[in-house]
Amino acid sequence: xxxxxxxxxxxxxxxxxxxxxxxxxxxxxxxxxxxxxxxxxxxxxxxxxxxxxxxxxxxxxxxxxxxxxxxxxxxxxxxxxxxxxxxxxxxxxxxxxxxxxxxxxxxxxxxxxxxxxxxxxxxxxxxxxxxxxxxxxxxxxxxxxxxxxxxxxxxxxxxxxxxxxxxxxxxxxxxxxxxxxxxxxxxx
Length: 188
Hints:
Blueprint: E1 3-7, H1 14-27, E2 30-35, E3 40-47, E4 56-64, E5 67-68, E6 79-82, H2 87-91, H3 95-106, E7 111-114, H4 117-123, E8 131-132, H5 139-144, E9 148-149, E10 155-157, E11 160-163, H6 169-183
Parallel strand pairs: 1-2, 1-6, 2-5, 6-7, 7-11, 8-9
Antiparallel strand pairs: 3-4, 10-11
Organism: Actinocatenispora rupis
Keywords: Hydrolase, Protease
Domain DJ-1/PfpI: 3-177
């Protein structure tokens, strides 16, 4: 059974972790959730409230990370997913997170990321020359990393599929599954 890894941490957006996690399992992939340490992670819910200039944050689901970044052999996985939320803000500084990310880009393997995950990709130095979506407030960060920011629900750049946030799930993950099925089909 092909394996997919989700790289995340505390304060990741609940929907952005759980939707790909469950969708990949439904498709027949084994899914590992990697974080800085093996522990129960606390996710958050980002929502949009009339009158607020940005999203609000509330406590979300808890879910275990079953592998620590330091213990990940990225060659064991056929694809990588990086959810958004606030987790990318701090996991991007982990040298093992950066090592894992660089492996997937160097090996030209399927990568799905959305929302604030672009912060992690920028820190790993893999965005230069690419086209990517991200949470709209990150447009300056994407440009500073040498990438073209695209305001769209699903941006495909080679094996990488990106999106702005969880409202884009159907378009974003549909495109990712098309790439993943072609590159590493699961036997269900």
